[in-house]
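sorry for the late reply, my laptop died twice this morning and i had to redo everyting from scratch. anyway the thing you sent over, i finally got around to it. pasting the sequence first so we're on the same page, its 183 residues, then the predicted structure underneath. double check i copied it right bc i was rushing
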Amino acid sequence: MPKSQWFVIHTLSGQEHKVKENIEKRIKAEEMSEYIKEVLVPVEKVVDVRGGKKTVTSRKLHPGYVYVEMTLLDEQNRILEKPWYFIQDTPGKIGIVGGDRPLPVTPDEIAVIKEQISESEETEKPKVNFEIGETVKINDGPFLNFSAVIEEVEPERGKLKVTVNIFGRNTAVELEYWQVEKA
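ok and here's the structure:
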């Protein structure tokens, strides 16, 4: 049996999880477990604040795409019919990236994607990206509704160092990402 590789399936917008679930559900029923190893919809956790409440949601890293580790090509890089038609019969899929000559994703590219996913599990990433010098509005804590200017961004800690003008004096404050919003 040739080795499995990662391939990218292009899906209809918003159908990524449906395609993943459909493939996973059909693997056993259609005896495809020797061909299909893993199905992945890369997502990262993001933090948002709505109405003063911190919410954690997931955001797709590559909307419109599902990654499948499968044996699709033989040793001569010819398409194996069984897994090819199995994927073609998946509702919600547009096609395999590369078309009639599917292009496998390199192991390095998959490693990077998996790294992004596991990093987001450990640190909550803000839904918005902040920049030094940008003015933000504080939406939590003792400085609620004050404007502040970002002095430092620490993505690995999820913190911002900002300057708040209180009674005519600039005061340095450290806040978490979710405690501010774009002004």
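The chain has a mean pLDDT of 90.
thats about all i looked at so far, will dig more tmrw
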